[in-house]
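Hey all, sorry for the wall of text incoming. These are the two entities for the joint prediction.
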Amino acid sequence: MLRDKIEKHLLSVQKPSRYIGGEAGSIVKDASNIDVRFAFCFPDTYDIGMSHLGMKILYSLINERENYWCERVFAPAEDFENIMRENDIPLYGLESLEAITNFDFIGFTMQYELSYTNVLNMLDLANIPIFASERGNKLGQIVCAGGPCVCNPEPLADFFDLFILGEGEEVNLELMDLYNEHKKAGSTRDEFLRAAARIEGVYVPKFYTFKYKEDGTILQLDVEDGVPKTVRKRIIKDFDNVYYPDNFVVPFTEIVHDRASVEVLRGCIRGCRFCQAGFIYRPFREKTADTIAEQTRALCENTGYDEVSLASLSTSDHSEIGDMLTKLLDYTEGNRINMSLPSLRVDNFSEELLEKIKRVRKSGLTFAAEAGTQRLRNVINKNVSEEELMNTCRIAFEGGYSSVKLYFMMGLPTETDEDIIGIADLAQRVVDLYYSIENRPKGRGVQVSISTATFVPKPFTPFEFEPQDTREEIERKQKLLVDSIKTKKIRASWHDPDVSLLEAVLAKGDRRLCRVIYTAWKKGCKFDSWGEYYRFDKWLEAFDECGVSTGFYANRRFEYDEILPWDHLDYYVSKEFFIRENKTARSAQTTPNCRLKCSACGVTKCIGGKCFDKT
Amino acid sequence: MIRLRAVFEKKGRARYISHLDLNRCIQRIFRRSGLPIWYTEGFNPHPYFSFALALSLGFESCCEVLDFNLNEDMPLDEVRSRLNAVMPDGMSIASVAPQNKKITAIEKAEYVVELSSEAPDKLADAFGALMASEKILIEKKTKKGIKLVDLKPSVELISTERAGDAFRITLMLPAGTQTNFNPTLLLEALKNSSETEFEMVKIVRTRILCENNEFFS
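and here's what came out:
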């Protein structure tokens, strides 16, 4: 039995409980009663993957169906991977402890570009052919993917049989039902994939062929008959009533987000022009305060967690935030549960809200200012003024906080040296503010941390056309920032620009990237998001060998009239809107948030009405 | 405040829960059970749990001891069944009773060690020879560094058993707040003393005992 083989080696690896399942809340079924088996694969280790909310939702949703069984699969850490390879242990599901090789669906969630090589590694560990074209015409196992990265799935197109665009709560089951029918009817793989391609939200890349111009840009996309010319993402219309699990798998080992998590809203009204999540998850929908309170209670009772966090892109944009917090705090405080509230915005951070937050958390405050000057904040549509930021810091300092973390991006479109120096100046004014406050925390100095990420242009944003700064330029700007800081009370840190370059290439790449990813994996690249594993030299070799230029994707301006690798995918927000927003950005003009004024992004066509009554 | 003591099993998949993780796991089990668990009254109130002995990662046990307190008196059977309803795979509560002896009363623990070998006869002979030797010296890691200790006076062999390629040893070793010997030390000594290769299949803690071989309860 595979289980014996696994157990024989578990005591020689780090944190063995990651590889054996059996956690409270995990769902074990009798395989002989199951029609369709789904391996939900997260292309990173257990500690990271188990924190992912989407997996928890879809895992429980599929397992609600008696004749379907969803199991969890993660990338093994290196020590266990070596043991697996030495001892012929195939990648297996944590519930059945059976190899996933013969499961019906091998479904990956693609959350970040730097996990792409892990997909190949996991398929290899599962003894499943890496390329979709090598999987024959027997129905067999369907390798599929969803998640934010599949809004441009082309760099992964050769490895997957199909992609699921948008929200999975409905389409996943539709797809499994279809598979079940075809399995019973003895269909071929091709028959199933053709039928699947007609489900809204399902993209089967092999029916779509790209032709390129001599200059490397896309000439045209040929689409086979019988499949849609454009594939639309799926959305859940009635968000307040959408399925939400009342239980999670509770891990034994500590994971990154080891707590109950309740999704309070989906989508974002803000329209920050660099933010992909802000556009691909539109429209804005929220759960009622009562639903949120009820789901919080159920999850805490069933999991035994004593901490709950509210998940969303911007929790303070919830229309009933005050009411919601009052209801939640009544429950959590009465039951010794801690509540954490990530994703708060600076501008609507009222004194009353801070009072409530102070009751729930003691850690530091973080603000995403994103840019150092008002001009650049206008360009990126981060509608936060310095006054609002200072005001919030004042409230926080008066409330006893003495450290603040500020997030910025570097290499934003239209950025000048003045904007970089502006980051240091802004941090300095926060330091000065602290010392100007009479009732600041006694006997404590202030600590302002500046964290800068390199701007990565992403598909389905107004900046999808923009080039990324070259590595040399980013390094020059980083030095400029450090030279502009005059006090030890300000600390600066940043991301590795080589990592951001690869992110940009993979985010904006086309189907020619598949070869590069395969070559890099063959050279040993995996866990690219882990600093200690990232091998930029190997990646550069892979690009070189495949004759693909990083600059073509990362550092080139994509023209408005160019066919983009993701133009045949419809996330409801229109390309015209992105072009309009890109032009507005270049003139440093802002666009009001969706609640104030509808900017006609195109998403209303999916709900057949306005997003907000008043606009 | 009602002081209670649970005896629980930790087997199968649950044997990979480390001692540190077990604490968190138990906290969540109690929260799920909805039992009126008593919290400490300090600056940072937390539920009070105390394990009589730590169990090494990978060991199974049918006699782990957990002390906890409840705010209300309630039928012990109900406490047990409410906990068992929310246990992870491999863990279950055998009994819940008032705390009788103090944890410091623990002197010994009994283990069943199962080994497998391609030459089980030779292994049995090698083990017999080891137990017959005058001293069983082994390096033991302590807080102060590595120390050479003689296991001989501490090992109490109960029985050995052969079945197919399995070789099973039942033995008692000192346990408790003073001295603790891990049965893997003896396996190390066996490995050092003989060329017969073997694999450790499993180790199960089967009993926790006090003076005069009385059960700890």
